[in-house]
Every structure is written in structure tokens, then in C-alpha cells.
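Annex B.
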Amino acid sequence: MDLLPRSPGEFGSSRYWDRFFRQRGQRPFEWYGAFPELCPVLHKYVRPRDKVLVVGCGNSELSEQMYDMGMCEDIINIDISDAVIRQMQERSGSKRPKMSYLLMDMLQMDFPDAHFQVVLDKGTLDAILTDEEEATLAKVDKMFAEISRVLQVGGRYLCVSLAQDHVLKKAVEYFSQEGWVVRVHQVAGSGDKQQFVLPVFVYVMTKFRRIPGSAPQILEICPEEQDKLMRVESVERLVAAVKDRQHYALLCSQLSKTPCREQVSLDLCDKESGRPRYTLHVVDSPSVKPSRDNRFAIFIIPQGRETEWLFGTEEGRRQLAASAGFGRLVTVALHREQHYEGMAGIQAELSGKVMELAPPGLSAQQQVPFLSVGGDIGVRMVQHCDTSPLSGEYVVEDVKGDGTSYFRRLIFLSNRNVVQSEARLLAPAPLSGQKKRRKDKKKASPTEPPTAIDKSYLCCEHHKAMVAGLCLLGGPDPLPGDEAVLVVGLGGGSLPLFIHDYFSQARVAVVEIDPSMLEVATRWFGFSQGDRMRVYVSDGLDYVAKLAAEVFALPPAAPAQYDAIMFDVDSKDLTVGMSCPPPAFVERPFLQKVKTILKPEGVFVLNLVCRDIRLKESVLATLREVFPLLYARRIEGEVNEILFCQPSPEGRRDPTELGARARALEGDLRQPGRPWDSSYALADMLQAVKIL
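eEF1A lysine and N-terminal methyltransferase: predicted C-alpha cells.
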């Protein structure tokens, strides 16, 4: 502790450094890593015939090792401490005759202009730029001006630094404005891990003649252990890129010392494009008793299954880690924009990186297992991608589920972890012998998924619950005759298609604000319109308001229009704690309009996805004000909650009666020759409702 300065300003005091080196003696003091870590970067920019100036040399062995390794010999070292200069002259004088040590202030050097090809600074800038006071900044400007003066055109200023925001920004702004090329390297395996948690960087500023006018800035970063340079467009982006790497180093340091109480997530990016390639979640299981073989594992999530509850939620990943039986499990999600060379390729790519996330005390030689479902990385085939003015970028993709099942999904890239619509794909029918022989000759890919949509299958649990809500329609018969149904929100069209096909007399009207979604549903999800199915491209708010106005204009005895109204519409505003529906759809004046176009014995079914507890309570309170009878059905393992709202309390039924009506409805829907999946279980859906 006695070696530390009393205040940051002492870093610029020769008296402080004399005292520092006298107390430390002959032991070298290596700021920010030793020669082995810095050597790969220095080799790129220091040539054997270069004349090199080392500013603020201290008693570091760096110059000596550069000399001894033959990197270069014409090295002049300067420092403001007389004690360290005498010490270093005694240590190197006879051994390294071409290298010299001079007592000199780098703010006022005696060298002529353009005297050096390289100026090397290891921690000196960090020691001076301890704050952003005017006097400090003036001193740094003077330092930079002197370095610029003594460097030849084409020469390099190599600055080894921890890259604090204000230090990096000052250096990059100064030299880029002078027309120099600025490059930042991260040093691999840098420094003493006990001394410095943060990684070490080398700024490489290459001097060019200043061009009159506004020449474009050239700013580049080279991440750890990579030769590929990444061009960035601004100083702010360069600082942000460095900060990302510092945060990662801090995270790895934290994970290597203590178990993480909360799940940690991070992206690993592609070297070429800089786009996310892997998304990792680190999950610790305190309940798992550690042994040599169960401390750490990597789980590769099959492509396309990252949205499933087990892989896409904190609780699901926690359950996955516990059932896998490992103290720390890192789940790895694969991105749709990337190409992967199978499990072996992923393992080779990730092996070194994931070890940086290992739990405390794990040996570097420990074999870490890579796990997955079925031992492969799954199948994902992007069928279509486009951009909608309303929904933004979206993709339609086919993914492999459990076993041999394939599914088609619609994903909005603004919320890429949520499946907007999903449909099961039908397996191709068996081929006759002759056709099969012709097919075999084509050698179809064994991983090629089917393409026909299974319109009889509801993939989404909340859609099954919404269909079950039709049991609440009035009358003793659980299956009304020619019911009129309004669905707001088309998506892929699976919900209105199912109602149209299974309720053979139902008249279905669908409102969809985005014309692109109608095109997607028709082209990719088997949706079609007909006499009993019509789509209206309109804002649901406007459409309902228009119908309500028409009802008000009719005679008092005129009936309302719909037996059932269903809202399954997502919110484009991700800043609100409710992703479905948009807040305007659950405001009291609009809900009154919904009630106006709903028959007295009808049912309003709402898919509510709300993580904000207070907002959810407010929505429920508003619904109760408008609809006296309100049922709720939570979807297990999901945030979705399906609300069944009725205009009259007289239709109240307990869950047992609802279950009986659901069984009767299910019997009516299960007609000969009509597919019916056992997962629909309408009775179970309704017996679990809660009356609010």
C-alpha cells in the first residue's frame, strides 16, 4: 500500500516515482502485462531497423526483452525518475550497448523532429490522464504534440492501456482529428489476473500527413486472438466496442470466482459480420451436489426450438439445468442468420470460449461435455424473409420439433424470441412403388421438411383455450348453429381457419391491420377466404368503432352482430409491459364498443400477455367494469392468460359445468374423417378456469 500515490496527481511527479522505485528495488514492475502477452501485437508494428522511443519506461523488462528477442535494438528509454534511470543503466548498460536510458520529461523532449519510427507507451498515458480537469487535459495535449513531433510520417504510436472511457476517447479523438489512422488491439491473455480484471488494449496510431479539408476518419478494432480488423464509423462506436469487451472480461472474472444467483446472458458475434452468432445463458444450480464430473456442461439448443418454454424462459432453463444434473449449465442458442457445420463444428468453435465461463476451481484440463436433444443441432430452413412497414422485418421458417414433426413459424425480428404464428407441416403421403423409385432417383435430402400445412392442428396452447371458450355461448346446446365470429389479428391464420373448418356453419370475419400478414398467411400458412371467411384489412380499433356506430344507428330491437369476438393481436410497442394486446384495445371506451357489437349471450375472448403486475390488475379492473362475468385461464409455462368476458352475469357457470359443455362440444367437433388431436382437451382447458 505504501507504493500507491496519495492522490492521482502524484502519477505525474518525479519525486513520487523516485520514491516508488527506491522502495521497490530491482523487481521489475510490469504495467498491464509482460512481453509474452504484448509480443504478438508488437511484432506487427515494430521492425528490426526501427528507431524506437519508450516513454515512461520505469523498470519494466519490456525494452530488454524486445532487444534480447531481436525485435529491435535501437531503443531509447526515457523517464522522469532519476532513480529508475540509474537503476536501468546499471542493469542493461554492458549487456545491451545499442539501447540507452535517458532522464527526460516526455512533455519537453530534446529529440529533433521526425526522429523515430515508433513511440511506445506502456501505461504512461493512463498514469497521466487520471481525470478530466483542464490542467490534466492540457498536459496530455502537450504529451501528444511532442509524440507527434518526434515521429516520422508513417511512424506508429503504440499505447498500452486499460482503455478507460475518457482515456480512449481522448486519444482516439486527438489523433483521428490529426488525420492519423487509429487501430485498437485487445491483448490476448493480458496481465496479472489478480492485479487487473479488465483486459489490456494497445492503441496503434499511425501518422499520416494532414490533408486539408475533412478527410474521413479511419477507426478499426481487432478483438482478442483475431487477425480480422473491424472498421467502425465513429469514435463513439469504437469506445462502445471496447466497453463490450471490458464488460465480458468482468463477467468472466465474476463467474470464475462465485456462483451466479441470477442467470447471465451474452451474445457471441460472428467475426466477419459482427452479428450475433450464439446467445449464451449461464445457469447455476445450487441444489446439485458437485462432483468431478458434474460441475460444468454446455447445452446446444436445437435450431428453431429456442422459443420453447424449456429453453426460452428463466424458469425453463433452471429446470433444464437441474434435470441435467450439472452445477453450471451454459445453454447455447443458434441464430437463424448463421450457418453451422454440425455439432462437431460448433463444439470446436465454442470449446475455448465457454471455458472462460467455467465455475470456480474447474481445472483447465477438465473435459466439458456438450449436450443436446437427440445429439444434433436441429433443422431450420428459412422459407421467406421480408420487411413490412407495420411489423418490421419478419421471417417464415420451417423447424424440426420432437421426433419427425416439422413446424412452420412466423417470427417478427423485433421480438425474435416470440413465435407469432405456428403451424404443423403434414408428412408426405406414402408413394406407390413406381413413384417411389422415381423419387429415390432424385435423392431427396433426408432433412428436407414437408411443405403442406396441417390445418386441423392448433400449435399454440392459447389458441386451444380460445376455441374452448366458445363453450360459453348461451343456450343448452354447446355447439350453436350459424354463429358469427370476429377475430382481430390474423397472424398465420390458424385460429380463424380452425374455427371455419370445425364449426361448419360459422361465419368468420377477420380484421388485420397489416396487409403483409394477409399475404404471408395465404402464401405460407394455407389460409384462404371464402363464403364463410372474410378478411378486412383495417385497424381493429377503427373496425370495431365503425360497427358500434352502425349498431347505435339501428332501431332498438335490432340485434348485435357477433356471437363471439376474439382478440389475438400483438403490440408493436415493446416498451410497454403488455405485449398483447396494445393498450388501446383494453381501454374502457373501446371495450364498451366491443360490448355493443357482442350479442347479450355472447363471449369476448382476449389473449392477454402482460408482465407488468400493476398494469395487469388495471386491465382486469377495467374489464370487470364493462363485462360483469369474467373467467380467466392461465396457460401453463407461458405468460399468456386467456380471459373470457360475458355481458351478462346470468350466464355464470361453474368450472364443472363448463367442463361438461366442453366434452359435449368436443364430441360434436370430432366427426368421422376429421382429424382431432388429443392435446386439444377442451374440457381440461375450461375446468381450470378461474372466475374473477
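The chain has three domains: 8-250, 258-371, 458-691. The longest helix spans residues 235-257. Further annotation is deferred to the next reporting cycle.
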